[in-house]
Amino acid sequence: MKKIAIIISLASLFFIAGYSFYDLVHTSIQGKFVQFSIILVITFTLIIIIRYITLIFFSILKNIQKTKDDVEPRICTETVSILVPAYNEDMVIEASIRSLLTQTYPYIEVLVIDDGSKDRTYEYAKRFEHVDGFKSVKVLTKPNGGKSRALNFGIEHCSGELIMVVDADSKLEPNAVELLVQSFNKPDIAAVAGSVSVINRNNTWANLQALEYIEGLNMVRNAQAYLQLVNIIPGPIGMFRKSALDKVGGYDHDTYAEDCDLTLKLIAEGYKIDFEPDAIAYTEAPEDLLDLIKQRYRWTRGILQAIRKHKEYLFNLRKRPSTSFVLWYMLFEAIFWPFMDFWSSVFFIYISATTGLSSLIVYWWAMFTVLDMAGALYCLLVTKEQLKLVFYAILYRLYFIGIINVSKIFATIEEWFNIEMSWGKLERKGRL
Amino acid sequence: MNIIAFLSFTILIITILTLVFGVIAYFLYKARENKKAVNQSSYEDMLKELDSDYIFLTDSVQLTSKDDEN
Q1: Cα-based angle A77, A80, A82 (whole degrees, multiple of 5)
Q2: Residue A191 pLDDT > 90
Q3: C-beta atoms surrounding A285 within 10 Å
Q4: Exposed (0-12), middle (13-18) or buried (19+): which is A332, by Cβ within 10 Å?
Q5: Do A290 and B37 touch (CB under 8 A)?
Q6: Could you tell me which residues come within 8 angstroms of residue A336 by beta carbon, excluding any fewer than 6 positions away?
Q7: Residue A62 in contact with residue A71, Cβ under 8 Å?
Q8: What is the pLDDT of residues A121-177, one digit of tens each?
Q9: Closest Cα to residue A156, out of A168, A167, A148?
Q10: In A, which residues are within 8 Å of B16 by CB distance?
Q11: Are residues A411 and B33 in contact, defined by beta-carbon separation less than 8 angstroms?
Q12: Are A399 and B14 a contacting pair at CB < 8 A?
């Protein structure tokens, strides 16, 4: 009955929207380019609105489900091996290890994997090496070979049934490990993602990213978790079942988004991926624009590489509906959204240049800003974050997303033409 | 001037500036990365680039073993 109601509501919405476009295109504005652009922009707008509503709806459902499940906590005795791959991280490695040692979960094995650092990472990490009851810290070193190889090296040398992966620039809340372990309450859950929060909120770029992490990443993951189909386990905090990692062969080395690639491999294998919003990792966000572009460029190309690698599942709706759904969603976020946003901006500029100043641009911008602010307010209230971040939603829509989308479009074009790229490691400021 | 017209004008200008600035920022990032890549060249990369067995570092001129042969 519920399904029928949803289908009827969506069909009605599409019918009204379709009729409105038809009416608009045939009565007021002439010209093929303008007509085509109007249809495209309105379709895009509708999709984005539906996306927002769906995500918030699923996120609410997930929160309700979580409140219900929280009644009986599971008694956990699994050993957790925490892998910390580190390359030139001497600015942050000590703070990172300290945060791991203050975890409330008792059965922890910390493995720092120095990936051939040229600085003093190995030396600083080595100072923490010890065995203390159920907790231990071990520091391994290997020639530089990239994050995925370092992680596989760690997986080979660890002994835990559960493997947690954290970035060397992450700092965890003391209960993070405990909460993540609790989430492995069903055998088909292969991995659980945690929340990522920006720690260095000391300028506008960092505050905008703080909002983006809460609304754009954590809320999306919470919604995806309702279906247990989280598409990316974030680098700063994620936990995996070792048996599942062994089954899919660990990390591959052929993409720049090894976390996304691994998650897709697990989903394709039929595993579930969950999200624990209260397990929080703090991370340093890029503080200047060029570093931010560098990060987003790598993310975009990495995600596109992962999608291309698993492209056979895109049209495999019958055999692997969940994998196909996740891939289409990622394709939408990585390509369709930035291109359409850019197209819409160009269209509004064109309309204003040819027919005079159009108020459409205000309504369009206002609608998205209101949506962003409403979404942000909901997320900030749920996560008990600073409410002042809501106002950054105005700047977010005004210029932040426009600049990021331009770099995403360039990254997509370069990926299309297979232009060579490097990992693009960010310089740490040591804010942990 | 009414408020909608004023907002339309402001947002239009910001949209244009954002797109232009986005493109400039992207190329600035590319230029910075290329510069870094050159600065971080290894000894072996330099040898390959100079097509030589040795690298001679002087104040004004870079000599290579091929120069010696000449």
Answers
A1: 165
A2: yes
A3: 26
A4: middle
A5: no
A6: none
A7: no
A8: 999 999 999 888 788 999 999 998 888 999 999 999 999 999 999 998 888 999 999
A9: A148
A10: 349
A11: no
A12: yes
* HSE of A243, CA atoms in CB hemisphere, 13 A: 8
Q: How far apart are CA A239 and CA A103, in angstroms?
A: 15
Residue of B nearest to A345 (CA): B15
Token pair for A386: 């600073």
What are the tokens at A182?
Answer: 């609790």
Alpha-carbon separation of residue B38 from A253, B31, B42, B43 (angstroms): 25, 11, 9, 12
Q: Is the CB of residue A407 less than 8 Å from the CB of residue A297?
A: yes
3-state secondary structure A114-181: EECCCCCHHHHHHCCCEEECCEEEEEEEECCCCHHHHHHHHHHHCCCCEEEECCCCEEECCCHHHHHH
| Contact assessment for residue A166 and residue A84, using Cβ atoms and an 8 Å cutoff | yes
Q: What is the SS3 assignment for B36?
A: helix
How many residues comprise chain A? Answer: 432
Rounded to the nearest angstrom, the minimum Cα separation between B56 and chain A is: 25
Measure the CA–CA gap between A357 and A94, rounded to whole angstroms: 56
Q: What are the pLDDT digits (tens) for A284-304?
A: 899 899 999 999 999 999 999
Assembly ipTM = 0.80
Candidates A341, A402, A335; CA nearest to A48 is A341
User: Pairing relation of β-strands A130-132 and A162-165?
Assistant: unpaired
The DSSP result for A208-241, as a single string, is HHHHIIIIIIIHHHHHHHHTTB-S---TTSEEEE
Q: Whole-prediction pTM value?
A: 0.81
Number of residues assigned to chain B: 70
Chain A: residue whose CA lies nearest to B4 = A359
Of A207, A197, A214, the closest CA to residue A378 belongs to A214
3-state secondary structure string across A324-371 = HHHHHHHHHHHHHHHHHHHHHHHHHHHHHHHHCCCCHHHHHHHHHHHH
* Pair type for strands A189-198 and A238-241: antiparallel
Picking from A365, A340, A383, the residue whose alpha carbon sits closest to that of residue A210 is: A383
